[in-house]
Design brief:
The structure holds two protein chains of two kinds. Chain A is of the alpha+beta class. Chain A contains three helices and six strands, in the order αααββββββ. In chain B, α6 crosses α8. Classes of the chains: A alpha+beta, B mainly alpha.
Chain lengths: 183, 136
C-alpha cells in the first residue's frame, strides 16, 4: 500500500512539474470542441436517412418525415372532427387508448386534410371505453360532422359500442387510409 | 358573351369543380367500415356480417334488398357511386364464384330501387334468409 502511495505521489508531482494549468484548460477545451464536432460528421446523417423498406409506418399514416404537429393540441390536423377528450392527454396517444380502457371497434369515419403534405386522410374516431371520463383536453371540432339523425356521421354519439363497457373515457384519431392525394 | 363563350365558361366551371366521387375502396372506409369493420365481420346481433353478401342475389327480392337496406339507400352516395360500391363489395365479400356470374348494378337500377323506403328492414332480411335456407 505504502508503495502505491509513494508511486501516486511521485506521479502527481511530476505531472504538476511538467504541465501548466493553461495547458490543462486548453486540453479540456479541445476535447469539448472536438466532441461536439463528432455528431456533425456525415456518419450521423447517413443514419438519419432511412433505407428503403426500413421505415416503420402504420398503414395509411403520413410519411413520418413530414412535420407532424402536436398530438396533444386540439388543433392537430387529424382531430378535425373530434368531439370529446383527447386520449393523448389521458395517458394514451393520438392512436392508442389510455391503459385500462378498451378501444371501441365500432366507430365513425371522416376525412381530414394534413397541411404538411396536402393529402386528405381517412380518419377513424374510435372511442376509448371502460374508465370514467378523462376530463383533460376537451376538443370540439366538427368538420364533416352531421346531426344525430344521420347517425353514422355524428360525433355527438357515445361510440362505445362493441366494447365490454359503455363508459366513455376519451377518443383517438386513427388514420386508416388516404382519400385523396390532394384535397 | 356569345353562346360559345357561355359554353366554354360552363365547361371551365365543370372542370374546376372538385370531383367528389371517391373510389369504392374509400367509400367503403367512409360509409361502411365504421360499423361493418374492415373485414366486414360486423358485430353479432347488431351489425350484420357481410361475408358471402352475394348469396342474397340468389333469392327473389335479394338484389333489391341490398340497395334498399338503409345503409345503402340512405347513404350520401350518388346512384353511380353506390352502384360501384355495391359491385365492389359483392366481389370483395363473395362468395368467390360471384366474380363470374355477377350482373353489376347500374346507376339507373340504383335510381329505381333506392327510392321506395324499406319499412321493416329486419323482417325483410329474415324473410330473405329463410328463403335462402329453404333453397339450400
Amino acid at each position: 500500500m505504502a508503495r502505491m502511495d509513494r508511486w501516486m505521489t511521485g506521479f502527481a508531482r511530476s505531472l504538476a512539474r511538467r504541465t501548466s494549468r493553461r495547458s490543462v484548460l486548453a486540453g479540456i477545451g479541445t476535447a469539448l470542441v472536438g466532441g461536439a464536432a463528432v455528431p456533425l460528421l456525415p456518419v450521423a446523417r447517413g443514419r438519419a436517412e432511412p433505407a428503403p423498406g426500413d421505415r416503420v409506418t402504420p398503414s395509411g399514416e403520413p410519411d413520418p418525415t413530414t412535420p407532424a404537429g402536436d398530438p396533444q393540441d386540439c388543433g392537430y390536423w387529424r382531430y378535425c372532427a373530434v368531439d370529446g377528450f383527447l386520449s393523448s392527454c389521458c395517458g394514451g396517444s393520438h392512436n392508442a387508448c389510455p391503459p385500462g380502457t378498451q378501444m371501441s371497434p365500432i366507430t365513425w369515419l371522416g376525412t381530414c386534410r394534413n397541411p404538411a403534405d396536402g393529402k386528405e386522410y381517412v380518419i377513424s374516431y374510435n372511442d376509448c371505453c371502460g374508465k370514467d371520463v378523462c376530463g383533460s383536453c376537451i376538443c370540439r371540432r366538427h368538420e364533416g360532422d352531421k346531426p344525430v339523425y344521420y347517425t353514422p356521421k355524428s360525433n355527438d354519439i357515445d361510440w362505445c359500442m362493441g366494447t365490454r363497457e359503455i363508459i366513455y373515457n376519451s377518443t383517438v384519431a386513427v388514420v386508416v387510409g388516404v382519400a385523396r392525394e390532394k384535397g | 358573351m356569345s353562346r360559345a363563350g357561355l359554353g366554354l365558361a360552363a365547361l371551365a366551371l365543370a372542370l374546376a369543380a372538385p370531383a367528389r366521387g371517391e373510389t369504392p375502396e374509400v367509400n367503403y372506409l367512409l360509409q361502411c367500415q365504421g360499423c361493418h369493420l374492415p373485414d366486414g365481420s360486423g358485430k353479432s346481433g347488431a351489425v350484420p356480417d357481410l361475408k358471402d353478401l352475394g348469396r342474397f342475389l340468389a333469392v327473389p327480392g335479394g338484389r333489391e334488398y341490398l340497395v334498399r337496406v338503409p345503409g345503402s339507400a340512405q347513404s350520401p352516395l350518388s346512384d353511380a357511386d353506390l352502384a360501384a360500391l355495391l359491385n365492389w363489395m359483392l366481389r370483395r365479400f363473395g362468395p368467390a364464384a360471384i366474380a363470374d356470374t355477377l350482373e353489376p348494378y347500374t346507376p339507373e337500377e340504383i335510381t329505381a330501387l333506392r327510392r321506395p323506403p324499406l319499412a321493416d328492414v329486419a323482417a325483410t332480411r329474415a324473410r330473405l334468409l329463410a328463403r335462402l335456407r329453404a333453397g339450400d
